[in-house]
Write a structure and sequence with these properties.
- It is a single chain.
- The chain has a six-stranded antiparallel beta sheet with strand order 4-3-2-1-5-8. Strands 6-7 form a two-stranded antiparallel ribbon.
- The protein has helices at about 15-30, 50-65, and strands spanning about 65-70, 75-85, 90, 100, 105-110, 120-125, 125, 130.
- It has about 130 residues and is of the alpha+beta class.
- It contains two helices and eight strands; from the N terminus they run ααββββββββ.
- Strand 1 and strand 2 form a beta hairpin.
Length: about 130
């Protein structure tokens, strides 16, 4: 038998890049990805901070809204929020000394109702009306 050297007869077959690009764009249009027709693009991770808490505090500070702050041990303080930072907030009170309260010790807070009427009726441990948990 003859030893046939096939290496000289082989052609290198390589698809053109334009064909690959067309296939990829067609898969994208159909909703598929390179790993299968049902693969979806991943969404990015949600932001770590939405600034909702900051917006709430700023709004209450600007309007000087009377607030009720309930601590984790059940103690209740009433006053107006003067300032806040990452770890605490300052509550100005009419009937007592001003307080700096750590946010970790706040169970929840809500707007004080008008004319001294208590709105602490709770449903499943949360205050009725608008509230903001820390």
């Amino acid at each position: 038998m003859k030893d046939i050297d096939d290496s000289n007869n082989r052609k290198l077959i390589r698809p053109s890049l334009s064909n690959l690009r067309d296939q990829y764009t067609n898969q994208k249009r159909r909703g598929g990805g390179p790993n299968g027709p049902h693969q979806r693009e991943r969404r990015g991770t949600p932001p770590g901070q939405t600034n909702a808490e900051n917006f709430y505090y700023v709004k209450q500070m600007q309007n000087q809204t009377p607030m009720v702050v309930v601590l984790t041990d059940g103690e209740v303080f009433r006053g107006v929020i003067e300032w806040y930072d990452k770890e605490c907030l300052k509550l100005n009170r009419k009937n007592g000394a001003n307080l700096v309260i750590y946010k970790d010790s706040i169970k929840y807070l809500y707007k004080d109702s008008a004319k001294g009427v208590k709105s602490e009726t709770s449903v499943n441990g949360t205050a009725a009306g608008e509230s903001m948990t820390a």
